[in-house]
Amino acid sequence: MSTAIVYYSMLGNSEMIAEKMAAKLGADVIRIEPDKAYPDKGAKKFLWGGKSAVMGEQPVLKPYEFDADKYDKLILGFPVWASRPAPPICTFLNDNTVKLSGKKISVFACQSGNGAEKAFERVKKMIGIDTFAAELILIDPKTRVNADNDKKIESFCEKIRR
Fold it and tell me: Which pTM was predicted?
């Protein structure tokens, strides 16, 4: 059995972290994207993204391949919007909740401010679990390069390997 990293990334933060983790873990990477992209600049970015997250919207996703039977470990990665997971992750979870049963699930979130802890609690509730195997929160890792981030990623990956 193996590990899959399922992620959504608007500005490349979650993508960068997913790729680093995949290299360390030998994991498969599955990028999910909404069929209709969110605005990624200016005030529209915050208005549309925040509204979508707060309203609990679940956008239609572009086709992706995810065979849950191939994996015993799953890492979910996403940006935090209004203290919630980005809506594409919510769609993925809604579409695959039954398939995730019995998997060792971990999460990472990229954010500019705060709210990841609340977003993690929402994900747990959506999939009906009490704890994650590992959790990681990073602040704008693509633009705020920080030597501690590599240590945090390595520690997270070590928990996944167990």
Answer: 0.94
